[in-house]
Amino acid sequence: MGVIDRVLGSPGAVSALGQAAQGVAEVFVPSATRRMELSAEAQMSALRQLGEEYQHPALSGFDRVINGLNRLPRPFLAFGTLGLFVYAMVDPVGFAARMVGLNAVPEPLWWLLGAIVAFYFGARETHYFRSRPVMAPLAPGAAAMEENAALDDWRAGGLGA
After folding, report:
1. How far is residue 38's CA from residue 36's CA, in Å, rounded to a whole number?
2. From CA 75, how far away is CA 83, in angstroms rounded?
3. Which InterPro entries does this one have (predicted)?
4. What is the pLDDT of residues 118-149, one digit of tens each?
5. Is 48 part of any domain?
6. Least confident of 11-15, 45-49, 84-88
7. pLDDT in tens, 84-119
8. Is 50 part of a structural domain of the chain?
9. Angle, helices 73-90/92-103, rounded to nearest 10 degrees
10. Residue 90: its pLDDT value, please?
């Protein structure tokens, strides 16, 4: 470094030369750190915008009707199944005639019905899975950790020592 100091004159000149070289290098090879910073800023901006759209949803009468209709399939399926048992006890002949009619439904139609029901409940479960609150992980050594007497003894050297 002594030769460079003598040629350039002072430590400030060496620093300026290093910064100039870095600036020239970034013209040819962009800074990966700056690229990650810009990407993170863009992503956070997009998330903020998306969050603002759903901050205060205004529910119109139509929205309330649709939300009410979305709550009907599960009770209809549950009470409808119980109703079939009651119907079978009250009118066994009529129940048997309708079951023969169901037996005439082609198998691909049953597969279609199964897919519709599975996708309905799967989408519903996915919605609730995605909208559940995210729990922050505990920091190591946090006070919220459970007490473990065996682990405390082992750390103290009480077991197997």
Report:
1. 5
2. 12
3. GTA_holin_3TM
4. 888 888 788 778 877 776 666 555 555 677 88
5. yes
6. 11-15
7. 999 999 999 999 999 999 999 999 999 999 998 888
8. yes
9. 120
10. 96
**Cα separation, 27 vs 110, whole angstroms:** 63
84: CB partners within 8 A, 6+ apart: 95
67 pLDDT more than 80:
yes
Specify whether the CB–CB gap between 14 and 8 falls below 8 A. Answer: yes
Spatial contact of 161 and 155, defined as CB atoms under 8 Å apart: no
CA 48 to CA 56: how far, in whole Å? 14
How many CA atoms are closer than 13 Å to the CA of 127, on its beta-carbon side?
A: 7
Domain that holds residue 14: 1-57
Phi, psi of 64 (to 5 degrees): -65, -40
User: Please, are residues 60 and 67 in contact by the beta-carbon 8 Å criterion?
Assistant: no
The number of distinct structural domains making up the chain is 1
**What pLDDT, on a 0 to 100 scale, did the predictor assign at position 117?**
84
CB 94 within 8 A of CB 87: yes
Looking at the domain assignment, is residue 72 inside a domain?
A: no
**22 inside domain:** yes
Tell me how crowded residue 14 is: count the other CB atoms within 10 A of its CB.
15
